[in-house]
Amino acid sequence: MKEQRHPDIAEITLTRLLTALGDPVRIGLVRVLSDDRERGWGELRAPVAKSTLSHHLKVLRDAGVTRTRQEGTRCFVRLRRADLDDRFPGVLAALLAAAEADGTGDEVSAADQSRRS
């Protein structure tokens, strides 16, 4: 399988970050990944088709929000929290707090999590 390209920390721009996070499903994915666990794509639950979920994960990866790792035919994803905190201190924490307060992304979960209420 082809190795995925991830932007270097200096390539992560605020505009790309905010654009990537401009969708409730993607914010939900970031909320799920904010527990700092690596997740298999198959563990992620969202109210979209698998192809759409794949697109959302690609947008997050291309913006530098997540890192994808392939193992055989399986893909795993994790949040690039340290990189984002180094590049834009406080932005991720503020976004996660606001999303939690507003319920943005509540429809997204992981297989081992119950849906947020």
TrEMBL record:
All copies of domain HTH arsR-type, residue ranges: 6-99
This protein's UniProt keywords: DNA-binding, Transcription, Transcription regulation
The protein, known as: DNA-binding transcriptional ArsR family regulator
Source species, domain of life: Bacteria
Signal peptide: none
Organism name: Spinactinospora alkalitolerans
Any one Gene Ontology molecular-function term assigned to this protein's record: DNA-binding transcription factor activity
Gene3D superfamilies documented for this protein: Winged helix-like DNA-binding domain superfamily/Winged helix DNA-binding domain
Transmembrane segments: none
